[in-house]
Write a structure and sequence with these properties.
Strand content: under 5%
Number of helices: 9
Radius of gyration: 36 Å
Distance between the termini: 91 Å
Helix content: over 70%
Length: 280
């Protein structure tokens, strides 16, 4: 039990510190595009960058230690790939740099730089959270999908001045994630338009997983029905074979009772072995 607790709290063996740090920097990215950016966004970049750098340092120490140990290569922590580890170092430095750059609504190069970093962060988030989406059931996928859509709806309500209520934001998030595009509510600001791009990438992928899981559930039920039918036919055939074998045994026993002489002559008789006699 203490070993499991130690592994859970160890940031080098758990992706949660990196995952939380990257997610926490997302509001700071969009806040820099608002007309009046808040000061907490700068500190959010600093804290997220420090956590990402610390997690990358812990992973690198574990990788170097396992490389020197004779049992290296048996277990691999998350982020063990050299390219992913270099990307973590780069993202940590980039988040700290975002804290000192001009605001995105005042400088177009800063906006482009933060947009590139956001794409890399999205890639890293997907790589880290991939087991959470693939190794789960339908109920958990539905809960995660509802959570993501709720957060996206809150994001649209916060970023877009044309979205006047939370339910309008939720509707815009769903229509954007499902790539329906009814046109009744559309993103009107730069921040919400950039946000809609990431909503499509995340939401559509998650909705695809949900629909695929539902389809797999129906296909699985149909396959189980076919398997039950095949097993039922096999049992019926085995039952008929047993019945035929029982009838064949009865016929053989009846033939033996009817012709006992033939059956006895067919069986070999044992003859006494002659003993050698001594000649005097």
């Amino acid at each position: 039990m203490p070993t499991k607790r130690r592994n859970f709290l160890d940031s080098s063996s758990s992706p949660w510190p990196m995952l939380i740090a990257l997610i926490a920097s997302v509001p700071a990215f969009y806040d820099s595009m608002m007309p009046t950016p808040a000061t907490w966004a700068t500190w959010m970049y600093v804290v997220s960058g420090v956590v990402v750098l610390f997690s990358a340092w812990r992973v690198q120490r574990m990788v170097e230690g396992r490389t020197r140990s004779p049992n290296s290569g048996k277990t691999r922590p998350w982020g063990h790939h050299p390219l992913e580890l270099k990307l973590d170092w780069f993202l940590g430095v980039a988040l700290l740099l975002n804290a000192v750059l001009p605001q995105s609504n005042e400088s177009e190069p800063s906006l482009i730089w933060r947009l590139v970093i956001a794409v890399l962060m999205l890639y890293r988030l997907l790589k880290i959270s991939l087991p959470l989406f693939t190794e789960t059931g339908l109920a958990r996928l539905l809960a995660m999908g509802a959570t993501v859509l709720a957060l996206c709806g809150i994001g649209f309500y916060w970023l877009d001045p044309e979205v006047n209520s939370l339910h309008d934001g939720l509707w815009l998030a769903f229509s954007t994630a499902a790539t329906v595009g009814y046109g009744d509510i559309v993103p009107s600001s730069t921040a919400s338009r950039i946000f809609s791009v990431f909503v499509v990438l995340l939401g559509y992928g998650l909705l695809s997983l949900v629909t695929a899981s539902i389809a797999a559930m129906f296909v699985g039920s149909q396959e189980r029905k076919v398997e039950r039918e095949i097993l039922h036919d096999m049992h019926m055939q085995l039952k008929e074979v047993r019945h035929e074998i029982a009838e064949l045994r009865q016929s053989i026993e009846a033939a033996r009772r009817e012709y006992p002489a033939a059956s006895s002559s067919a069986t070999p008789t044992s003859r006494p072995v002659p003993h050698d006699t001594e000649h005097h």
